[in-house]
Amino acid sequence: MDEADGPKANEAGGGAGKDRDTAVSERRFRFLVAGYAVSSYGTFLNMVALNLFVYETTGRALAMGLFMAVRLASGFVAGLVVGGLLARFSAKSIMLWANVGQGSVMLVLILAPESLVTGALMAVSVVIGACGTLFMVALRSSIPEMVGEDRRAWANSLSITGRSLAMVAGFASAGVVVSLVGYTAAFLLDMATFVVCAVTVALLPIAGGKGAMSAAGASGTEKAGKSEKAEKSEKSGPRWRPVAFLALAAAPGLGLMVALRGVDAFGSSSHNAALPIYSTSLDASNPAVFVSAFWCVWALGNIGAQQVIQRYAQRTGRSVGALGFGYGTVVMSAAFIAAFAGFPLAVTAVIALIAGAADGLTEVAYTSHLQTLPATLRGHAFGLSATFENLGFGVGMILVAAALDRFTPLAVVGWSHGAAIVVAVVFLLRVAGLRRAERTGRVGLRKEEAVEGRPDRGDRDGAEVSRG
User: Which residues, listed in sequence order, are joined to residue 90 by a DSSP beta bridge?
Assistant: First the structure.
């Protein structure tokens, strides 16, 4: 960070001014998270309502699978292009139009005549899938510019808390809303949530994307030159693919981390598909009870973990790091496997709580780690990550659906999440090796400093290539 850009810590008013700026940015981010939580509620509401509507309209379970496949494929493509979009447009404009697009397509579905409902449903799946990914990547990649590098763990935790609360509310209320007021009212409510988020984004000054690169360029002559070159490179042609993979090569172990995220999404597809089947085996007359209770307890664990992470970040000024992501993935995957082992309901509730807490830990650790990349690469890394996640979940849903016809839920979830555990162990060994090499390098550097007097600028935690 350039100290010449503002009052120094020992200057009069410097600390107070910084505290004021931090308080303002945090207050604005809380408003943004509130809008994001409202739209997330709409997203989870329509996941249930739209699937029910598709099945009722077509009468075929295959149509539900096709609807989900199109939605995931749209998110896959959006993940590939969002890095280039963030290099050309501000994060605020992408987030705004992503919500406008989702709200508009819901209106199209509401107004569509009966003969065009099927086409409108396909349009909804495309737009919802693509715009959801665009919004998520724009938000996560821009958090360091919104709240500052030292507050990114707090911001990530807050946004994940809002999303988890919205997920519980969306899943819990979807059946009630549809049964009481019907599909049209449910879709109107869904559209209203996207309008609320769009208005929130429009009213707030949001940094990130092209705007973030311009701001960074104004902070110093050398940085300006680099930022201009990066922007010209982006504008010179469709180079988002090599830049996206360059983002993964920018830090040791980052490619393996993103790959683990994709395998984790593959594992997630197994428990999402297996839960209704397992719940039916427990109570065939009312299978929704176990599923709803499981996700509610999972969300409580997730939210509890976010509170702990926020306090840890406030007290220490540190994020949980790459090791937290690796260990959290192991614990989460093991917990989901244990959830299908037939334990008593009280034990299963504890397991669901642990799974939610570990899931929350991995989410914050992963997001915070990618945010340490330079702004010119961050959007591409998050976009490619979203692509891997959609690919893992989509392929998983296909393979898991086929496997569940022949094997028990425990077996299917066991090998799916078992694959995530294996890759997580490899990742942890890789991180440990990098840290040993880093410590060895720092010892050699300190010996050299004893003669030359140079400061230690070793990078921390692998991805933090831009910080000392």
Answer: 209
At 454, the pLDDT band (50, 70, 90 cuts) reads very low
Mind listing the pLDDT tens digit for each residue in 353-398? 999 999 988 988 888 888 888 877 788 888 888 888 888 888 888 8
463 within 8 A of 369, measured Cβ to Cβ: yes
130-144 pLDDT tens trace: 999 999 999 988 888
250-260 pLDDT per residue, tens: 555 678 888 89
Q: Using CA atoms, how far apart are residues 22 and 116, in angstroms rounded to an integer?
A: 50
d(CA 251, CA 4): 29
Least confident of 10-14, 141-145, 343-347, 454-458: 454-458
Contacts of 404 (CB under 8 A, 6+ apart): 273, 274, 277, 412
Closest by CA to 51, choosing from 34, 37, 66, 39, is: 66
C-alpha to C-alpha distance for 223 and 208, rounded to whole angstroms: 16
Q: Which of 331, 385, 386, 389 is nearest to 362 (CA)?
A: 331
Strand partners, 83: none
**pLDDT tens-place string over residues 385-440:** 888 888 888 888 888 878 888 889 999 999 999 999 999 999 999 888 877 777 77
Measured CA to CA, the distance from residue 182 to residue 184 in angstroms comes to 6
Categorise residue 344: left if φ over 0, alpha if ψ from -120 to 50, beta otherwise.
beta
3-state secondary structure of 2: coil
Q: Which are the contacts of 454, defined by CB distance < 8 A and separation ≥ 6?
A: 445, 448
Q: How far apart are CA 288 and CA 174, in angstroms?
A: 12
Eight-class DSSP state of 90: B
**What is residue 219's three-state secondary structure?**
coil
DSSP state of 6: S
Do residues 213 and 225 lie in contact, with contact meaning Cβ atoms separated by under 8 Å?
Answer: no
pLDDT, averaged across the chain: 78
Cα gap 295→293, rounded to integer Å = 6
Percent pLDDT > 90 in the chain is 22
Q: Is 135 exposed, middle or buried (0-12, 13-18, 19+ CB in 10 A)?
A: buried
Output the DSSP codes for 301-345. HHHHHHHHHHHHHHHHS---HHHHHHHHHHHHHHHHHHHTS---H
